[in-house]
Specification:
Elements: H1 6-10, H2 12-16, H3 20-54
């Protein structure tokens, strides 16, 4: 029976390492989550502010 280290043979160690670009993409995605969760609840205040600013005195 042939026994080998699968991490060395298939390069899994290299594939599992995060590249700087992947880390940057993950950071951007994680930072977007709070904005996407809060925006629907705050949207009515944005619309109200826009309408208030567009009224002429």
């Amino acid at each position: 029976m042939l026994i080998f280290d699968s991490a060395k043979e298939t390069g899994l160690a290299e594939q599992a390492a995060l590249t700087p670009e992947a880390m940057k993409n993950a950071t951007i995605f994680v930072s977007m989550i709070p904005v996407l969760l809060v925006y629907p609840f705050a949207q009515k205040y944005f619309a109200k502010g826009i309408m208030l600013g567009s009224e002429k005195g």
